[in-house]
């Protein structure tokens, strides 16, 4: 029911004015006659404009008040409607209308006090207004002050309601902006995640393919079977990468639609094997007592190792030696990838700056509370060093 009235403000205001006219107009008609009822009609019309045009409503109310002063002695029941008009001016969004309402409250109190006290119609023994000028002056101040205070009180209530509404609207707008910002941040994180996953998947596969093709091109003159073996490795690597990309895209389209498990600790050997196929010598040293981790931790560790080995392929090429060390502790795993590049490369080294892969590596560790350090090897040969530590809670691994 209330929703119906809220959706039809003009109809609601007209009904409000009609109800006010029936209630107050009838009372003034019975008590003071037709003239009083007509004045109440003016006040009822002013109430109709309280929401849409409070300034116009205030002007109409002033017309009714001036007519009342000129034609009627005393107060009317319909004068109560003026309180609603003044309340509407305090509620208005126009600064001019609001100040007009406050000035009208003070001036209205003075005008009403003047009419009721200073120009009272009759004085005598039974009169409510004393004839003594001093007492009449005191009465004037008191009556004017009370009327002005009553009007100003309703004006203040309107200002308070408006202020609270504005505060609620501002809070709602801030909440909307926060939700939009969080949604935007979530989208950016999803884009970054997709970028990292695509980089790790495709980058590693392409590095293996390039290394195999370059190696086969140089080795086929001395080993006819090298080209066939390289093509088999390229085919296997490309198919695996294609399946991984397809799975990733399917998960993005439908989060519950993925069927393949994310790579983790169980896939370290196959990762190392793929790098060996690319012509690198890889040694994996792992301490006993591997503990289960959450899928997120295993994926992060796998991707960091994958990126390190991919960079070894790109920077060192065939003949590069890679030492991978995993030290499993009670609450963390320390990892180290040290590459030793050959003194003379048969394939020119691709010395490019690390970009997206390095950023993704640090971001993965940061999100899980881990650390990773990367840099060029400074002693004991030419190569790169990647080492870090990934803390975890073993109980998280129950999956």
Summary keywords:
399 residues; alpha+beta; Heat Shock Protein 90; five-stranded mixed sheet; 11 helices; 5 strands; 9% strand
Architecture overview:
This protein is α+β, with helices and mostly antiparallel strands and 399 residues long. 65% of the residues lie in helices and 9% in strands. It has 11 helices and 5 strands. The protein has helices at residues 2-6, 9-32, 34-48, 54-71, 80-91, 95-118, 133-219, 224-253, 268-277, 295-316, 356-367; strands at residues 281-286, 321-328, 332-340, 371-376, 384-391. Strands 1-2-3-5-4 form a 5-stranded mixed sheet, with helices on one face. Helix 4 packs parallel to helix 6 and helix 7 (133-219) runs antiparallel to helix 8 (224-253).
How are the elements arranged and paired?
Elements (H helix, E strand, L loop, with lengths): L1 H5 L2 H24 L1 H15 L5 H18 L8 H12 L3 H24 L14 H87 L4 H30 L14 H10 L3 E6 L8 H22 L4 E8 L3 E9 L15 H12 L3 E6 L7 E8 L8
Structure summarized in a few sentences:
The chain has 399 residues and is of the alpha+beta class.
What strand line-up does the widest sheet have? 1-2-3-5-4
What's the tally of helices? Answer: 11
General form? rod-shaped
Mean pLDDT: 80
User: Which value, in Å, is the CA radius of gyration?
Assistant: 43 Å
Major beta sheet summary: 5 strands, mixed
Total beta strands = 5
End-to-end separation? 53 Å
User: Roughly how much helix do the residues carry, as a percent range?
Assistant: 55-70%
**Beta strand %:** 5-15%
């Amino acid at each position: 029911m209330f929703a119906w009235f809220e959706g039809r403000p003009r109809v609601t205001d007209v009904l409000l004015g009609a109800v006010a006219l029936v209630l107050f107009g009838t009372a003034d008609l019975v008590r003071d006659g037709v003239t009083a009822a007509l004045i109440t009609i003016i006040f009822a019309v002013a109430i109709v404009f309280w929401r849409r045009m409070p300034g116009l409503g205030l002007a109409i109310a002033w017309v009714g008040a001036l007519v009342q002063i000129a034609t009627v002695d005393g107060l009317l029941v319909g004068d109560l409607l003026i309180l609603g008009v003044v309340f509407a001016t305090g509620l208005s969004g126009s600064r001019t209308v609001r100040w007009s309402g406050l000035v009208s409250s003070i001036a209205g109190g003075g005008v009403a006090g003047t009419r009721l006290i200073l120009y009272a119609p009759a004085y005598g023994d039974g009169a409510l207004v004393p004839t003594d000028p001093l007492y009449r002056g005191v009465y004037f101040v008191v009556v004017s002050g009370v009327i002005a205070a009553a009007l100003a009180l309703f004006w203040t209530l309107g200002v308070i309601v408006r202020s609270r509404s504005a505060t609620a609207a501002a809070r709602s707008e801030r909440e909307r902006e926060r939700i939009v910002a969080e949604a935007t941040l979530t989208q950016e994180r999803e884009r970054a995640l997709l970028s990292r996953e695509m980089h790790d998947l495709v980058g590693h596969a392409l590095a293996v393919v390039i290394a195999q093709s370059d190696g086969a091109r140089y080795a086929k003159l001395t080993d006819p079977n090298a080209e066939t073996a390289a093509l088999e490795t390229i085919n296997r690597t490309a198919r695996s990468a294609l399946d991984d990309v397809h799975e990733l895209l399917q998960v993005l389209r439908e989060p519950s639609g993925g069927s393949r498990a994310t790579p983790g600790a169980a896939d370290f050997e196959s990762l190392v094997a793929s790098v060996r196929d690319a012509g690198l010598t890889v040694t994996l040293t792992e301490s006993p007592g591997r503990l289960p981790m959450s899928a997120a931790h295993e994926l992060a560790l796998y991707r960091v190792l994958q990126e390190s080995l991919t960079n070894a392929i790109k920077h060192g090429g065939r003949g590069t030696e890679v030492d991978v060390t995993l030290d499993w502790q009670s609450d963390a795993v320390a990892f180290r990838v040290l590459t030793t590049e050959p003194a003379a490369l048969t394939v020119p080294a691709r010395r490019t700056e690390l970009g997206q892969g390095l950023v993704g590596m640090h971001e993965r560790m940061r999100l899980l509370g881990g650390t990773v350090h990367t840099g060029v090897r400074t002693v004991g040969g030419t190569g790169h060093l990647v080492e870090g530590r990934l803390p975890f809670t073993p109980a998280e691994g129950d999956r």
